[in-house]
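Reopening this ticket.

The earlier resolution said the output was attached, but the attachment link was broken on my side. Pasting everything inline this time so it's all in one place.
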Amino acid sequence: MSEDRPIALDEYPIHQAPLSMKHVVTGDRNAYDRCIFHVLDHEGRALLVAGLGVYPNAGIIDAHATVRIGDQLHAVRASDALGDDRMRLSVGPLHITVDEPLRRIRLRCEADPGDPGSFSYDIVWQADFPAVWEPHHVQRRGERLILEGRRFVQAGHCTGTIRAGGEEFTVTAGEWTGTRDRSWGVRPIPGEEPGRADEFRPEGFHWLWVPVRFDDRFLMVIAQEDADGHRTLNEAVLVRAGARDVQLGWPHTDITYRPGTRHPERAVIHLTDPARKPLELGVETLCSSPLAVGAGYPPAGDWQHGTWRGRDWTDRRTYHLSDPAAHSMAAYGVTDHAARFTLEGRTGYGIFEHGTFGRHDPSGFTGYDSVA
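Inline output:
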């Protein structure tokens, strides 16, 4: 067991509490610090989702990457004991290098040494717009604090190469878009007894997280609602380099779901500019990646973030998504949809992240078994 000594970050005047930078202020086991990246092809041929998380009070660092190509989802997951070098964002074959904070980041996944043709990538993620804060996110279940997080979001372009399933994609700035999210705070990890908080399990949950990159602007929309449509998180903001952010009111969304499912095929997000002019953000989904399959988000059954799997754990697998019944729990998790967007004659690209579970009165869903 290593001694509790200062780490390299303690050399810098960045402390927020009288603690070493290896410790967080809260003793909550669910403390986390995490990032997620999306790299999407404008034609819907491929969607890469990659992320890395640190769970300081659990002593765990883990990472994941998935790429959807056709009906196949290729996944790599890795986990290890958290070390003292908090600037090293690497777990097994997955690496994130911050070349220039808030501007240029390199994402890499090494191929399996025994299979040079396995899922791998080497991508430079380059910001086109300033990062913008998302609303402070607090969620309770009864008296229990379930989630408290601070996040920023950003959009840009990407260059590099993705290889998987015998295919190779050259990622170019004009044909691919990148979005990303950084968050930290408290968020549930597996293994905790829910206690009385289970008595307050919600009847329904409705979520939208929509970062969109246009050539000259970045648009971010967030909405979280309870079963009766009560809004608990809300954001609609327009970002342009060198200009003040513009608030776009209270977003309302009309979603067209595939019959017999809760899979969104298209949508219109209704916004309002400061002069009260209505704006319509059109959405056409291109390629979908359920985060409960391969990426470790709840209610994934094979692996979830913050789960201790021992030292130097790496897992590679390919999921076949052509049969929805093979991944039935994916319907109860959030799905990231690569999407094409339109706004006042402009065409942009980004992520339409959506999940709606249980009852949601505005959508007409009456319970967990209700579909369009």
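Reporter confirms the inline version is readable. The chain has a mean pLDDT of 95. The radius of gyration is 20 Å.
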